[in-house]
UniProtKB/TrEMBL annotation:
Keywords carried by this UniProt record: Hydrolase
Domain Amidase: 27-466
Top-rank taxon: Bacteria
Protein name: Amidase
Any one GO cellular component localisation term in the record: endomembrane system
Gene3D superfamilies, per database record: Amidase signature (AS) domain (3.90.1300.10)
EC number: 3.5.1.4
């Protein structure tokens, strides 16, 4: 059977280390043994760095013996392949970059190492971090530990699968279209999309570009874990300005959570979107959560005129997201999109049409879209005067079977047996991404098929600790992560 430490949280492991109940080397060895025993089936860890991890663990034990108190001291963890780690490959799944070796650590990695984290290796991603499935020609396909025939999510799918399988207590990921939150939903773990620009992304850079300070629109980096409290622990390590860019230190004082008791929270709870149905299993899980919250004394509201227009949000998000992504498209692909966009009827406001328009968006039109975003952000600000958090789905279904058909626009997702455009699933991740709001993903149920179901808690701008605290209280009241039965040994 798995040891008591295999699925323990980072907070629990830290306490055990300080109490000398276990050593950092033993923690690293346990995680490494699990990877060697199980990862041939899951394929979550695409780059192993075990020798350096054990060296770091030995150094952590020495530091602990001398009273060291690093926030992550001795904690085994993984990082998404897209982060530069000195001496290891960074490919983003691009075959021409399979031999690229990072020379320096990403800033987030520097901070993790300074806090004493023991990095076991890097986790698999889709090409260009552009899918909710994690596969590429360099490292192959990552499978969901709850059902190997299904996706673990993406683009931080290797990280979510690693956490679910007990391959370390923490991981680092990134998110522009749900890439932290969706894998957490599919694998039954926790993730936090921070307020935009809270965590500097220098060194989270596609090769062979230099690791310069980043101001990538919409995109963030953030923590993943098996508990909500661990998300806050890792976020505190990662957050704060980039000193090479801002010229100041990175310590940052975020507001405390609005409440410390579950019964004090005012929640707006959503389970439907005007542009995409929500599957019955997800709706049912949210309904059960709503009943539990009400019994616990939470103020739960199901609709409000303060809520920004979700359809408008989705259309603006599609334009701005694809405008950003298209900057790296090959000239022939961009030219094809220009020709296709010119054929769109002005009345076509489908999400596919908005994505196509976004690819060829002019700077003038981008500024118009940004103005619409600013208006929506102001509406969110007003909403959070009356509510502390919004709880809503992350995706319309639990994890689905692998589907690597290209292009993605031709794929279909089955929602209660009916096909819908695969890429339209962006509507739920986008409600927090477009305005740059913090959002915490947490597991709340298991489907009849034994698949995890999660939700996201969207919070106010820069009030990251409010959704994190609510997630922690929900976990304490109703339970949280459950290990996949096939990998508990």
């Amino acid at each position: 059977m798995a040891s008591d430490i295999s699925f323990a949280t980072a907070t629990e492991l830290s306490a055990a280390l300080k109490a000398k109940k276990v050593s950092a080397v033993e923690l690293a060895q346990d995680a490494i043994a699990r990877i060697e025993r199980h990862d041939d089936k899951i394929n979550a860890i695409c780059v192993r760095d075990f020798d350096r991890a054990l060296q770091t663990a030995r150094a952590a034990d020495l530091a602990l013996s001398r009273g060291g108190r690093g926030a992550l001291l001795g904690i085994p963890m993984t990082v998404k392949e897209s982060f530069n780690v000195a001496g290891l490959p960074t490919t983003w799944g691009f075959v021409p970059q399979k031999d690229f070796i990072a020379q320096t650590d990403a800033l987030a990695i520097e901070r993790v190492k300074a806090a004493g984290g023991v990095i076991l290796g890097k986790t698999n991603v889709p090409v260009a971090l552009g899918d909710w499935q994690s596969y590429n020609e360099i490292y192959g396909i990552t499978n969901n530990p709850f059902d190997l025939g299904r996706t673990p999510g993406g683009s931080s799918g290797g990280s979510s699968a690693a956490l679910a399988a007990g391959f370390g207590a923490l991981s680092l990921g990134s998110d522009i279209g749900g890439s932290l939150r969706v894998p957490a939903h599919y694998c039954g773990v926790y993730a936090h999309k921070p307020t935009f620009a809270l965590c500097p992304a220098r060194g989270h850079t596609p090769p062979p570009l230099p690791p310069l300070p980043s101001n990538r629109d919409l995109s963030v980096i953030g923590p993943m874990a098996r508990s909500a409290a661990d998300l806050a622990l890792l976020l505190e390590v990662m957050a704060g300005p980039d000193p090479s860019f801002d010229g100041i230190g990175y310590k940052l004082a975020l507001p405390a959570p609005r409440h410390s008791a579950l019964k004090d929270f005012r929640v707006l709870l959503l389970d439907s979107h005007p542009l995409l149905p929500t599957g019955a299993s997800v709706r049912g899980a949210i309904e059960t959560l709503a009943s539990g919250l009400i019994k616990a004394g939470v103020s739960v509201t199901r609709q409000s005129p303060l809520l920004p227009d979700l359809a408008e949000t989705s259309r603006v998000y599609m334009r701005m997201l694809l405008s950003f992504l298209a900057a790296s498209f090959a000239p022939e692909i961009y030219a094809g999109a220009q020709a296709a966009a010119a054929q769109l009827a002005p009345s076509d406001d489908s999400l596919a049409a908005e994505r196509l328009r976004g690819i060829v968006l002019s700077h003038r039109d981008w500024l118009i879209a940004d103005g619409r975003r600013i208006g929506l952000r102001a509406q969110w600000s007003e909403l959070f005067k009356s509510f502390d958090a919004v709880i809503c789905p992350l995706m319309p279904t639990p994890a689905y079977p692998h589907d690597h058909h290209e292009p993605q626009e031709e794929r279909r997702i089955l929602i209660d047996g009916r096909p819908h455009p695969y890429v339209d699933q962006l509507v739920w991740p986008g409600i927090a991404t477009l305005p740059g709001l913090p959002a915490t993903a947490l597991p709340i149920a298991m489907s009849d098929d034994g698949l995890p179901i999660g939700v996201q808690i969207v919070g106010p701008w820069l009030e990251d600790y409010t959704p994190l605290k609510l997630a922690e209280l929900i976990e304490r009241e109703f339970g949280g992560f459950t290990p996949p039965k096939a990998f508990v040994d």
